[in-house]
Request: fold
Amino acid sequence: MSDAIVLIPSRMASTRLPEKPLADIAGLPMIVHVVRRAEATKIGPVVVACDDERIKQAVEAAGGCAVLTRADHVSGSDRLHEALQLVDPERRYDVVLNLQGDVPMIEPDAARAAFEPLSDPAVDIGTIMTAMPDYARNDPSFVKAVVTPVDGRRHRALYFTRATAPSGEGPLHWHIGVYAYRRAALERFVALPPSPLERRETLEQLRALEAGMRIDVSMIGSAPMDVNTPEDLERARMAMRGVM
Reply:
């Protein structure tokens, strides 16, 4: 594998949970928990790409590394790309793992699973999925990965959708938004305009598929808990205390 870096896009604005990256969980800001989980993957150096000096200060106070990026990025991928240029202008790293800043309890294996498909030079982007819970089969907020098996837990993505797909008997797969990009793939991706299916489904990864890029998906045992609301935050706090 090529040299890799882990970047964690983090922004202060959140309508459902104000100042989300700084939310206290077990005595530490949430973003610090994510940094520590990312470091445990041992994939490469970890850098938070943030839009607010307060996030940067919180990360650095805990011994981590952070870089300030523009506040007006439309997507995490754009913030990722800017951060990569800032922290690695020498282009030492050819692979970047994009780990979301709101998964304070993600297992290192889940992050590594997104990275694994890039062992195949034909793959541009790696990501992860898990079994779709029955209660979410018809919920458009749960994104479905339509895939075909490749080898072991690895599959090739044919489509991503908010619809209940594929139809017929059989399992559905819940896509988890953790991505590993080849650097050249990330640069190509952010240079592309939003695609028709991306706009229709509001799923950014469809831009890559429509452009002919290959995305492979690793199956993992369960979805990492993300924190988007005050209720999610309380569940994360309880889990960290061993209540759940």
Observations:
- The mean pLDDT is 94.
